[in-house]
Amino acid sequence: AQLRYSVLEDREPGSSVGDLAKDLGVEVRSLATRNLRLVSEGGQRHFQVDLAAGVLLLESRLDREALCGQSPTCSLHLQLVMENPLQLHRIEVDVLDVNDNAPQFPKPEVVLEITEVANPGTRLPLEVAEDPDMGSNSISTYELSPSQHFALSINVRGDGVKMPEIILEKALDREKVAVHHLTLTALDGGNPVRSGTARVTIHVLDANDNPPVCDPPISKVYLEENVPVGTLVTKLNVTDLDEGPNGDVEYSFKTSNNSPGKFTKLFSLDPRTGEIRTKAPLDYEESSAYEIAVRARDKGSPAMEGHCHLRVELIDINDNSPEIVLTSLSSPVLEDATPGTVIALIGVKDSDSGDNGQVRLQIAKELPFKLVSSFKEHFSLVTNGPLDREKASGYNITVRAMDSGSPQRATQKTFYLRIADVNDNAPNLSSPFDTAHVKENALPGTSVFSVSASDPDEGSNAKLTYSILHNGMQDVPISTYFRIDQDNGTIYTVRALDYEQDKVFQVPVEVKDAGSPALSSTAVVHVFVLDENDNAPTIVYPSIPKGSAFHQTIPALAEPGYLVTKIVAVDADSGHNAWLSYQLQETAEALPFQVERRSGEIRVAQALRESEDPHRLVVEVRDNGTPSLSTSVVLVISPEENSVQDFSKSLDLPKSSPTDTNLTLYLIISLVSISLVSCVMFAVVAARCL
User: Fold this and answer.
1) Tell me, what's the pLDDT at 648?
2) b/e map of 535-557 (b: 16 or more CB within 10 Å)?
3) Class of CATH domain 428-530
4) d(CA 625, CA 577)
5) Does the pLDDT value for residue 85 go beyond 90?
6) Distance between CA atoms of 224 and 312, rounded to whole angstroms?
7) Cβ contacts of 396 within 8 Å, gap of 6 or more
């Protein structure tokens, strides 16, 4: 917003200028919390803000003439910055003139000379009085004390300045009055009216009765700024009707002691030819016009002079590049900032005028920002789309300012905007399903698998913590089997695992970042327990107490190949650890029996002799593990005369007992478990392929 106030000069410090809180539409108590700051564009501090009352106060006494000189308007520009949200307001304070200065002539006494042969209507220019006040408080008119020979004429110069001249109304006679004493009074238009006077002494001279005449008396010249030094501005056209020395004219600048005139430093005057040239570079931005007064004096006795007034108006050229001022920058900005969020406040100025001073700003189109014009020469840089720190952590923003002059001038300013991270990315796991293998009976603390995850966020938003979830699939909490390092995601065993009890585990792992709110992802690690040969074979049949022997009778005349009995054994392990082989332990004497290595069937190997004593056999059952485990059973085979060759009888298989039923159940469970493990492995392979 832009506010405008006015205040009279010379008011006491502490005087109220305007009610900021009311005009801005904000509550007074919020001014302090929003860190209100007042910035003067000119560098000098003339105002202050009463935060308690919300009003703009004078900090020092203002002198309009010292601040703005002879400018028709006098404005002081302030910038009011408030935060939360960031806002910039422009304040323009007009300093109003009061009639605090009286007109004053450069000299208290003016001495003029006029020839006695001067014709009525002859003009005698007078010094212009000076009044620092402006407008109606400046010089309004001049008055001349009554005289029968002289009257006062007032001309208006090109810049509006009133120039007094004394006009001869009645022919002079030096022999009657040689010197005339008059009083010139300058009056301003203030209320009350102020005035200043100067004594005018006119000496009546003889002889040279034609003054130099400038044609035209008031002229105007247009000149481009920055023309080379020595450029001809104009050549004065002055004529003097006299002859000889009385018509020989010399030129000089007309200045006053109090105000020597700035133009004398910029222009030179040839006293013989009347040529006016530049002697220093001209700058439109410093002054757009110059008023030059030239005195043309002849060499008569007494000398007569004429006055030429030249107004030099400069034509602005585009010789100043725009200037970019970064008033405020909010860096870093959160990546979730909504479109339209104010990022920076940018001011621009160009000392040229017209089209040469019209400036426009632009930034690269591919940036997610745009420039919004707040008010004249002030812009806001706002977001124009979503920001993503993971794609761009910052932007080098180049603001380019171009004027409308010809040739065009441009300047640019680059600043860096950092994008602050917000927790908008959940941890990214390398795979939602992983497979690991661990040997049974491995020591507690054995490393099983390392879950790998990453988070594109930064700082605490990317700090990851791993944990194991309870999925309810096992009767016992999964945490009693495994633990995970919360920092690196490595899974360790808590206790020794038993393949015969649990062949596979589903370990759900959650990885969570430290953002607010925290985001998480989960993965399932299928841990397969690898079988170890930790179970010796178990004799299922014949079922006898430990340390006892199994007695079996066969016919005395059993022929070779006769099936004596069958040893049935099982192994709780799996795979090659459960492959069983049967063999007879070697004895001192050869036995007429043999055992099938794979089936465990014991058969007669050779014909038996009559009245043969019972035979004692030790059958060893061994698995295929590494190292191999074994168990043995003792059989006592007794040939009998009246024994009948009955296969079922010779096997002498007992009826099913509860123990046999349990063993059968264990076998069924083992087969089902192996089938389930196979299905899970096929599912994992299929998931990986997909």
Assistant:
1) 41
2) bbbebbbbeeeeeeebebbbbbe
3) mainly beta
4) 4
5) no
6) 10
7) 414, 415, 416
Annotated domain spans of the chain: 3-96, 109-205, 213-315, 323-415, 428-530, 538-640
Handedness of CA 53, 59, 65, 71 (dihedral sign): negative
The correct CATH number of 109-205 out of 2.40.50.1070, 2.60.40.60, 1.10.240.10, 3.40.50.2000 is: 2.60.40.60
Please tell me the class of the 323-415 domain.
mainly beta
Does the domain formed by 538-640 have CATH 2.60.40.60? yes
| CATH hierarchy code of domain 213-315 | 2.60.40.60
* pLDDT greater at residue 3 or residue 136: 3
User: Residue 310, Cβ neighbours under 10 Å: how many?
Assistant: 22
Residue 666 CB contacts under 8 Å (≥ 6 apart), including other chains = 570, 572
The SS3 assignment for 632 reads strand
| Cα 71 from Cα 315, distance rounded (Å) | 19
Residue 103 near residue 195, CB atoms below 8 Å: yes
CATH of domain 3-96: 2.60.40.60
3-state secondary structure string across 344-405: EEEEEECCCCHHHHCEEEECCCCCCEEEEEEECCEEEEEECCCCCCCCCCEEEEEEEEEECC
Longest dimension (CA), the chain: 199
Tell me: pLDDT of 512 over 90: yes
**Rounded mean pLDDT, 621-637:** 88
Beta carbons of 446 and 438 less than 8 angstroms apart: yes
Please determine whether the domains at 109-205 and 323-415 fall in the same fold group of CATH: yes
Percent of the chain with pLDDT over 90: 20
d(CA 239, CA 211): 9
Name the band, by pLDDT with cuts 50, 70 and 90, for residue 511: very high
Residue with tokens 């340390």: 547
Tell me 130's DSSP state: B
Query: Residue 56 forms beta bridges with which residues?
Result: 18, 49
Are the beta carbons of 302 and 205 closer than 8 angstroms?
A: yes
Confidence of residue 15 (pLDDT cuts 50, 70, 90): confident
Q: Is 517 exposed, middle or buried (0-12, 13-18, 19+ CB in 10 A)?
A: exposed
Q: What is the mean pLDDT of residues 197-207?
A: 84
Query: Exposed/middle/buried for 610, CB within 10 Å: 0-12, 13-18, 19+?
Result: exposed
Cis-peptide into 427, omega within 30 deg: no
Q: How many Cα neighbours within 13 Å face the side chain of 584?
A: 21
Q: Do residues 486 and 467 make contact, with C-beta atoms less than 8 angstroms apart?
A: yes
Distance between CA atoms of 476 and 493, rounded to whole angstroms? 14
Residue 1 pLDDT level (bands cut at 50, 70, 90): low
Strand partners, 238: 214
Tokens of 252: 């000089």
Q: Is 451 helix (H, G, I), strand (E, B) or coil?
A: coil
Token output for 503: 């062949």
More confident residue, 667 or 524: 524
Q: For residues 204 and 178, what is the distance between their CA atoms, to the nearest angstrom?
A: 5
CB contact at 8 A, 226 and 281: yes
The span from the CA of 139 to the CA of 186, in Å, is 7
Q: Two tokens at 260?
A: 């020597």
CA distance 355 to 109: 48
Residue 88: the pLDDT is 83
CA distances from residue 354 to 311, 347, 405, 411 in whole angstroms, order as listed: 21, 18, 9, 18
Which residue, 22, 50, 18, is CA-closest to 36? 50
